[in-house]
Amino acid sequence: MRRYDHILFDLDGTLADTPDFHCKVFIDYFTECGKVFDPDKITNGLQKTLSIRDVLRDAGVKDEEEEEEVFRYLRRFYGTGADDMIGRIRLADGARETLGALHKEGYGMALISNSMQELLERMVVVLGLQDYFFELEGAKEEQAEKLERFRALLERNEINPGRVLYVGDTNGDMKVAHTLGCDACFANTDIAWAQDKEAVIRTHKPEYVIGSIGELLEILA
């Protein structure tokens, strides 16, 4: 009997190399609007995997009206104008082949990401990954925190967390997995967003540490 029924994944920094994409979207918006902002705060906020609202506040967006203006722009851009940029995103080495193999083996797979829901849905299509996942759980304005979205996905699909492996690349990913009773796999790769990878491993003691996504197949064999 195999150990897991479901393999759930983070996207940014785990399956896809996305920091340049995210930074450019925010910087282009602020530049086009003529708004004063600190690009380093945007970059640092994304690297710390802050919520979108926190990134905006760090960048100088202080009131709800301006915040909603940014969200309207992002929803519109992600839905209609981001395909060319998304198409240039690099997938982690071996990601497509690994997802295909896991899907063929019958594992249930889903994405749980801090990227906005509209962007997550578009990225999966443009990158050609739509056939692998039974659900995409991105950030929403009314439910931004990954922990609660992860919990809701498990409950909605009646998934036993004890038979779930969550693959992520940050301190937050490992913490969320263990908080909910799932096993954690730390993707210690060249595209990971964690700023101190060794600290993540020491602090959270994930059940598995992989140097490439393809190593998942060895773990699950």
Automatic annotation (TrEMBL):
Q: Which GO terms describe its molecular function?
A: phosphoglycolate phosphatase activity
Keyword terms of this UniProt record: Hydrolase
The EC category is hydrolase
Gene3D superfamilies named among the record's database cross-references: HAD superfamily/HAD-like, Putative phosphatase, domain 2
Show the InterPro entries listed in the entry: HAD-like_hydrolase_sf, HAD-like_sf, HAD-SF_hydro_IA, HAD_2, HAD_sf, PGP-like_dom2
Classification via Pfam families: HAD_2
Q: Name one GO cellular component term.
A: cytosol
Give GO BP annotations, semicolon-separated: DNA repair
Entry keyword annotation includes Hydrolase:
yes
Give the enzyme's EC designation: 3.1.3.18
Q: Which SUPFAM superfamilies match?
A: HAD-like (SSF56784)
KW Ubl conjugation (keyword) present: no
Which protein, by its recorded name, is this? Phosphoglycolate phosphatase
Instruction: Give the source species.
Output: Christensenella hongkongensis
